[in-house]
Amino acid sequence: MRRLLGSVRARATLGASLVVALALVAAGAAVLLALRANLTAQAEGRADAAAREVASQLVAGRAYAELDLPEEDENPVQVVDDRGRLVAVSDDLERISGTGTTAVTPVRGAAAHSGGGGHGEHGEKGGASENGADGDDKGETPEPGEIDDDAEYGSGSATVDGDSADYRFAAVEVSTEDRGDLTVWAGGSLADEKSAVSTALTSMLIGFPLLLAVVAGVTWLVTRRALRPVAAITAEMAAITASEDLARRVPEPDTHDEIARLARTTNETLTALQTSVERQRRFVADASHELRSPIASLRTQLEVGAAHPELLDVDGAVEDTVRLQELAADLLLLARLDAGEKPGGARVDLAALAGEELSQRTRDRVEVRTELRSAEVAGSRGQLARVLGNLLNNAQRHARSRVTVATRPDGAWAVLEVSDDGTGVPPGERERIFERFVRLDDARTRDEGGAGLGLAIARDVAARHGGTLVVGEAPSGGALFELRLPRR
């Protein structure tokens, strides 16, 4: 059961069925109540009409024995005087409740009633139903010869000629000249109400489950059809996971609903994942290639030095070791950046950082000029120093005679610029140079050109700090690298 409810289709079907069931129960109860109230009102109308018909005969002075009473099984009638005595009753009435008296035999001394009544005892003084009429006050007593306009109603039962049934009784007061005040009780059968309510209830008990079954079946089929693309997406994702083929894509339905958006988002995620994996593979391949050269060179020099110590190129071995160390440091920093390392929130003044970095550079090939103005940012001092160092290394490789470093505030941004007077960067290559292991001058030696990671590292660090790094043309015609970071 728990596994079944884990299905969206099952939960949707169950939810829809519960909602419809509650709605049907509420609607069915309202219908039954309305039907019962309507049929009860009709029974009261029949009882009132029968009571007023008898009351009219009493006003006309007709004797109790000559009263034309309605049929007993439809409208049992009692006539009670002002002392609560039964003075007239319908034929074959054997038992009655809910009226002014439970008696079914007129009192002695009253005129003979219209038929041969039963043999029950006369009741106590009444005027109010033993079972309780719908009102406690009967209003003003009518004048002699008048029939009260208002009637009181109550529920009860009666047995006529051996058949018992429920009735709605109406009590109508009438005032006569010679017999005083009388109360006519007449019943309206509730058999139609019981039959109609029973039929309606039976129909509901049969129809509601069938309707619920239809609703559940339709919901199940509709949700299955709606969730069919999800099943296809799940199957394709399982196949991608099993095959590790990130070039595959999940099917996108020709709709504009949430499932279509899910499929598109999934494919976008797969594309990003594929790009990331391919980039990682290229990175590993390029890193292996870049590491192979200095390691092979260093090994060769050491092997020659071991065999012929007088031929050992100590300076070359040191340079290869330094290159290997710098490359390893670059690879480690890229790995940390790819892992999402946070830059931190230390306060860094770009002008002070540039001054400190330049003071430590003693082997630069060309002169470095500075135009430094204080501009504070928040971030990692070490990473920002690496960015500046990489930009300076790149400028030193390409400059003819001058490199310029400038810092300044610019509104909400702090700007660091590094420019040279070299050949510059062609417009079509200004984005490509920020890719990893990219070197535009393929003819230059590795010793002069580096591994092609410096600018890639610089842009990644700028992005991690919420800034940008772009390249343009310097006033001197060379390259101008502009780093923009949010000011502290």
Write a concise synopsis of the structure shown:
The chain has helices spanning 2-5, 8-59, 191-226, 228-243, 258-307, 314-338, 350-359, 381-398, 446-449, 454-464, and strands at 77-81, 86-89, 93-97, 152-160, 163-176, 180-189, 346-349, 367-372, 376-379, 402-410, 413-420, 468-473, 479-486. With 488 residues, the chain is of the alpha+beta class.
List descriptors:
single chain; 488 residues; alpha+beta; Helix Hairpins; Heat Shock Protein 90; 3 domains; six-stranded antiparallel beta sheet; five-stranded mixed beta sheet; 46% helix
Secondary-structure class: alpha+beta
Give the number of domains: 3
Q: Into which percent range does the helicity of residues fall?
A: 40-55%
**Mean of pLDDT:** 83
Strand residue content: 15-25%
Gross morphology is rod-shaped
Spatial sequence of strands, sheet with the most strands: 2-1-6-5-4-3
Structure, described:
The chain is 46% helix and 19% strand. About 7% of the residues have low confidence. The chain has 488 residues and is α+β, with helices and mostly antiparallel strands. The chain is rod-shaped and about 155 Å long. The strands form 3 sheets. Strands 2-1-6-5-4-3 form a 6-stranded antiparallel sheet. The chain has a 5-stranded mixed sheet with strand order 8-10-11-13-12. It folds into 3 domains: 226 residues, no CATH class; 106 residues, Helix Hairpins (Orthogonal Bundle), CATH 1.10.287; 144 residues, 2-Layer Sandwich (Heat Shock Protein 90), CATH 3.30.565.
